[in-house]
């Protein structure tokens, strides 16, 4: 076994040791095939008010602009599917499952820092950076390139053994390692469950989402009031949305995560619609102190809940 193969083996074993479910390796090349797709997506304003997605165009496509001398992109999957779900009947106010516990950015980034430390202890000086949905990295494209999944019709990464209820994370490093074979096949076939189920018609074509119509965008990223055209279409999702994942046949393979930090906050277990609507800022700060929900903020949450009230929720 040569050194490049040994590096790949070390990367895979370290990923397993740290609790990642899948690990794939890709050569840190320029993503030339993504250039026209990204340009068209931005030109159609599918990013809405997420102006940051139009920034650093070159960095999104070229990992060596994020890490000079980068040779390898390591893509990782970390499960967040809950053992017990909050009520999700039509009348229930709902919370995306990824936000049940602590903010994944911090939980996973800590693991990635440990990952890099282990590699450095075993191999020596390595230049690299860690990413968890926090920089201009086209994570789904890199994950597909590394063989750990394919981009589904809802634009999310799908994995045949796990579905899609997981976080993606990356290490971009200047260490050479044997790359995995990209996943060329699309296992969605003729299924259109996600497209058919999206109440705001955000999935405009297979694999392309108009972000400005997505419920996750409307409840988190949108700074203005939710447009009236979405009245009656929000399905009471107060932060994020899981509709396109819940209907995906591949998610029948989802299994409960093993990460205590992602367990449901105790106070949320008994939350009723009344609790959501009458929530004070003090309660918000207590319940969502370490949560990704903090990103939206209390005023945004109250605005979204008011929108539901106008729809007739109670």
Automatic annotation (TrEMBL):
<dbReference type="Pfam" id="PF08331">
    <property type="entry name" value="QueG_DUF1730"/>
</dbReference>
<keyword id="KW-0846">Cobalamin</keyword>
<keyword id="KW-0411">Iron-sulfur</keyword>
<dbReference type="GO" id="GO:0008616">
    <property type="term" value="P:tRNA queuosine(34) biosynthetic process"/>
</dbReference>
<dbReference type="GO" id="GO:0052693">
    <property type="term" value="F:epoxyqueuosine reductase activity"/>
</dbReference>
<feature type="binding site">
    <location>
        <position position="248"/>
    </location>
    <ligand>
        <name>[4Fe-4S] cluster 1</name>
    </ligand>
</feature>
<feature type="binding site">
    <location>
        <position position="223"/>
    </location>
    <ligand>
        <name>tRNA</name>
    </ligand>
</feature>
<protein>
    <recommendedName>
        <fullName>Epoxyqueuosine reductase</fullName>
        <ecNumber>1.17.99.6</ecNumber>
    </recommendedName>
</protein>
<dbReference type="GO" id="GO:0046872">
    <property type="term" value="F:metal ion binding"/>
</dbReference>
<feature type="binding site">
    <location>
        <position position="168"/>
    </location>
    <ligand>
        <name>cob(II)alamin</name>
    </ligand>
</feature>
<dbReference type="InterPro" id="IPR017896">
    <property type="entry name" value="4Fe4S_Fe-S-bd"/>
</dbReference>
<dbReference type="InterPro" id="IPR017900">
    <property type="entry name" value="4Fe4S_Fe_S_CS"/>
</dbReference>
<dbReference type="GO" id="GO:0051539">
    <property type="term" value="F:4 iron, 4 sulfur cluster binding"/>
</dbReference>
<dbReference type="GO" id="GO:0005737">
    <property type="term" value="C:cytoplasm"/>
</dbReference>
<feature type="binding site">
    <location>
        <position position="198"/>
    </location>
    <ligand>
        <name>[4Fe-4S] cluster 2</name>
    </ligand>
</feature>
<dbReference type="GO" id="GO:0031419">
    <property type="term" value="F:cobalamin binding"/>
</dbReference>
<feature type="binding site">
    <location>
        <position position="60"/>
    </location>
    <ligand>
        <name>cob(II)alamin</name>
    </ligand>
</feature>
<keyword id="KW-0560">Oxidoreductase</keyword>
<comment type="pathway">
    <text>tRNA modification; tRNA-queuosine biosynthesis.</text>
</comment>
<keyword id="KW-0479">Metal-binding</keyword>
<feature type="domain" description="4Fe-4S ferredoxin-type">
    <location>
        <begin position="179"/>
        <end position="208"/>
    </location>
</feature>
<feature type="binding site">
    <location>
        <position position="188"/>
    </location>
    <ligand>
        <name>[4Fe-4S] cluster 1</name>
    </ligand>
</feature>
<feature type="binding site">
    <location>
        <position position="154"/>
    </location>
    <ligand>
        <name>cob(II)alamin</name>
    </ligand>
</feature>
<feature type="binding site">
    <location>
        <position position="244"/>
    </location>
    <ligand>
        <name>[4Fe-4S] cluster 2</name>
    </ligand>
</feature>
<keyword id="KW-0408">Iron</keyword>
<comment type="similarity">
    <text>Belongs to the QueG family.</text>
</comment>
<feature type="binding site">
    <location>
        <begin position="241"/>
        <end position="242"/>
    </location>
    <ligand>
        <name>cob(II)alamin</name>
    </ligand>
</feature>
<feature type="binding site">
    <location>
        <position position="133"/>
    </location>
    <ligand>
        <name>cob(II)alamin</name>
    </ligand>
</feature>
<dbReference type="InterPro" id="IPR004453">
    <property type="entry name" value="QueG"/>
</dbReference>
<feature type="active site" description="Proton donor">
    <location>
        <position position="133"/>
    </location>
</feature>
<keyword id="KW-0819">tRNA processing</keyword>
<feature type="binding site">
    <location>
        <position position="216"/>
    </location>
    <ligand>
        <name>cob(II)alamin</name>
    </ligand>
</feature>
<comment type="subunit">
    <text>Monomer.</text>
</comment>
<feature type="binding site">
    <location>
        <position position="157"/>
    </location>
    <ligand>
        <name>cob(II)alamin</name>
    </ligand>
</feature>
<keyword id="KW-0671">Queuosine biosynthesis</keyword>
<keyword id="KW-0170">Cobalt</keyword>
<feature type="binding site">
    <location>
        <position position="241"/>
    </location>
    <ligand>
        <name>[4Fe-4S] cluster 2</name>
    </ligand>
</feature>
<dbReference type="InterPro" id="IPR013542">
    <property type="entry name" value="QueG_DUF1730"/>
</dbReference>
<comment type="function">
    <text>Catalyzes the conversion of epoxyqueuosine (oQ) to queuosine (Q), which is a hypermodified base found in the wobble positions of tRNA(Asp), tRNA(Asn), tRNA(His) and tRNA(Tyr).</text>
</comment>
<dbReference type="Pfam" id="PF13484">
    <property type="entry name" value="Fer4_16"/>
</dbReference>
<feature type="binding site">
    <location>
        <position position="191"/>
    </location>
    <ligand>
        <name>[4Fe-4S] cluster 1</name>
    </ligand>
</feature>
<keyword id="KW-0963">Cytoplasm</keyword>
């Amino acid at each position: 076994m040569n050194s490049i193969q040994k590096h790949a083996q070390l990367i895979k074993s370290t990923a397993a040791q740290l609790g990642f479910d899948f690990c794939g390796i890709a050569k840190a090349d320029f993503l030339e095939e993504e250039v026209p797709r990204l340009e068209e997506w931005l030109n159609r304003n599918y990013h809405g008010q997420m102006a940051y997605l139009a920034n650093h165009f070159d960095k999104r496509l070229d990992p060596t602009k994020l890490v000079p001398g980068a040779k390898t992109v390591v893509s990782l999957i970390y499960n967040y599917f809950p053992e017990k779900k909050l009520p999700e009947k039509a009348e229930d106010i709902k919370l995306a499952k990824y936000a049940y516990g602590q903010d994944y950015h911090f939980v996973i980034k800590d693991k990635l820092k440990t990952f890099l430390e282990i590699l450095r202890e075993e191999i020596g000086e390595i230049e690299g950076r860690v990413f968890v949905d926090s920089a201009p990295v086209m994570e789904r494209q890199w994950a597909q390139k590394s063989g750990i999944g394919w981009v589904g019709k809802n634009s999310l990464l799908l994995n045949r053994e796990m579905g899609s209820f997981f976080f993606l994370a990356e290490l971009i490093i200047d260490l050479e390692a044997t790359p995995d074979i990209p996943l060329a096949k699309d296992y969605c076939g003729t299924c259109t469950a996600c497209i058919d189920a999206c109440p705001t018609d955000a999935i405009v074509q297979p694999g392309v989402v108009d972000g400005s119509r997505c419920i996750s965008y409307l409840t988190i990223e949108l700074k203005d009031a939710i447009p009236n055209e979405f009245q009656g279409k929000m399905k009471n999702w107060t932060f994020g949305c899981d509709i396109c994942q819940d209907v995906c046949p591949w998610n029948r393979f989802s299994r409960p995560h093993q990460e205590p930090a992602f367990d449901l906050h105790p106070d949320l277990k008994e939350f009723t619609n009344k609790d959501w609507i009458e929530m004070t800022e003090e309660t918000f700060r207590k319940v969502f102190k370490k949560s990704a929900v903090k990103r939206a903020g209390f005023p945004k949450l109250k605005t979204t809940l008011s929108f539901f009230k106008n729809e007739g929720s109670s």
